[in-house]
Amino acid sequence: MISSEMSPHLIFKIERVIDLNLQILGLLSEITEDIGDPALRNLIISVVGDKNGSVRFFMLLLLLMDGNNNLTENRRL
Question: Considering the entire predicted model, what is its pTM?
Fold first, then answer.
């Protein structure tokens, strides 16, 4: 079971991970547009999917850890 308490420092680090992954997603999207080879494009699209999963995981983690602050009632991912 996940402990429901997080230090502000840990929250900051997780938010930073989310921000960096979102930046990477943007760059990967730009790269995908510039690649003409369909096989290579599909590989990069797969990496985009993995990154998207990482972002969703860390966002969910923050929501679960902050569940005592009324986020559990109206949470949507």
Answer: 0.74
